Amino acid sequence: MRFNDKLRLAWKKNNSLVCVGLDPDLSRLPAGMAQQRESIFEFNKTIIDATHDVVCAYKPQIAYFSAYSAEEQLEQTIQYIKTHYPDIPVILDSKRGDIGSTAQKYAVEAFERYQADAVTINPYMGFDSAEPFLNYQDRGVILLCRTSNRGAGDIQDLIVDGVPLYERVADLVANQWNKHNNCLLVVGATWPEQMAKIRNIVGDMPFLVPGAGAQGGDVEQLVKAGKTADGTGLIVNSSRGVLYASNGPDFVEAARNEVIKLRDLINQFR
Ligand SMILES: O=c1ccn([C@@H]2O[C@H](COP(=O)(O)O)[C@@H](O)[C@H]2O)c(=O)[nH]1
């Protein structure tokens, strides 16, 4: 099934636009869980089991695995989701980007080694660096457009041909790179004004929206700025806000409650 179809079904099945980011930080694991790489899969599995019916996607961030030489735990986590909750898409957040021959290997890493349904990539090396990913027509390719961080504007707001670079990226992706209808954009929850502009440029293209939760993005503003006419179009990610809602014995319940709270708040404004 194509990524965008899988996403649409997940939005509908769980009536949720929430994506849980799987960013396992050994120093923040719940009390009683050993701070060692072997705990990562157990922690992720517990969070996934507790939230699979209230999310539309999971987003493991590769750095939280490779930093601990825990690639095996990343593989196990993705396989666990695909086996037990096959309706929930997995987005590998790795933000790769390189010359075509190397990008080809990164595409194999994301889509064949890790079996991700979608991957984040950096578009700033141009079309040939994105093409190896885009050629996997059933997978999603999520390109950085206006990121959630404080310094997002340093480069993304530079004026190119009379418009900010992030608008050029949005236009380029929507009108030239999206031949297989498998492109999405990263648009930070922290920039609702820019999000509204991007929505105007790209029509119904889905956005991966990091920055709700720990980064403080305003949910009402982001949903109003980014939703599509049918009240979808957004994959709203929260990582730390969910994973570390509590580090006590109630961490599972606290994580689930956090997701439900975010889901219900988003749904209020769809
Ligand atoms: O613009 C971006 C792109 C990616 N991210 C990633 O999303 C999560 C956010 O984590 P929180 O704990 O919910 O803040 C993290 O994996 C980032 O690498 C982003 O924040 N902004």
What does this molecule look like?
This protein is an alpha/beta fold. It has one domain (3-268): Alpha-Beta Barrel (TIM Barrel), CATH 3.20.20. The protein is 46% helix and 16% strand. It has twelve helices and ten strands. The protein has helices at residues 3-13, 39-51, 63-66, 71-84, 100-113, 127-134, 152-156, 165-177, 192-202, 219-226, 240-243, 251-268; strands at 18-22, 57-60, 91-96, 118-121, 140-146, 159-160, 163-164, 183-187, 207-209, 234-238. The strands form two sheets. Strands 2-1-10-9-8-5-4-3 form an eight-stranded parallel β-sheet. Strand 8 (183-187), helix 9 and strand 9 form a beta-alpha-beta unit. Helix 2 crosses helix 12 and helix 8 (165-177) runs parallel beside helix 9. The longest helix is centred in the C-terminal third of the chain and has 18 residues, at 251-268. It is globular. The ligand O=c1ccn([C@@H]2O[C@H](COP(=O)(O)O)[C@@H](O)[C@H]2O)c(=O)[nH]1 binds next to strand 10 and helix 11. It is an enzyme of class 4 (lyase). This is Orotidine 5'-phosphate decarboxylase. Residues 17-255 form the Orotidine 5'-phosphate decarboxylase domain. InterPro entries: Aldolase_TIM, OMPdecase_AS, OMPdecase_type-2, OMPdeCOase_dom, RibuloseP-bd_barrel.
CATH topology: TIM Barrel
- Domain unit count: 1
Task: Quickly count the helices.
Answer: 12
Helix content: 40-55%
Profile the largest sheet: 8 strands, parallel
Structural shape: globular
Counting DSSP E segments of at least 2 residues, the number of strands comes to 10
- Which stretches are poorly predicted, pLDDT < 50 over at least 5 residues? none
Secondary-structure element order, N to C: HEHEHHEHEHEHEEHEHEHEHH
Say which CATH homologous superfamily is assigned.
Answer: Aldolase class I
CATH architectural category: Alpha-Beta Barrel
Mean pLDDT: 98
InterPro entries: Aldolase_TIM, OMPdecase_AS, OMPdecase_type-2, OMPdeCOase_dom, RibuloseP-bd_barrel
Domain Orotidine 5'-phosphate decarboxylase: 17-255
EC number: 4.1.1.23
Pfam families: OMPdecase
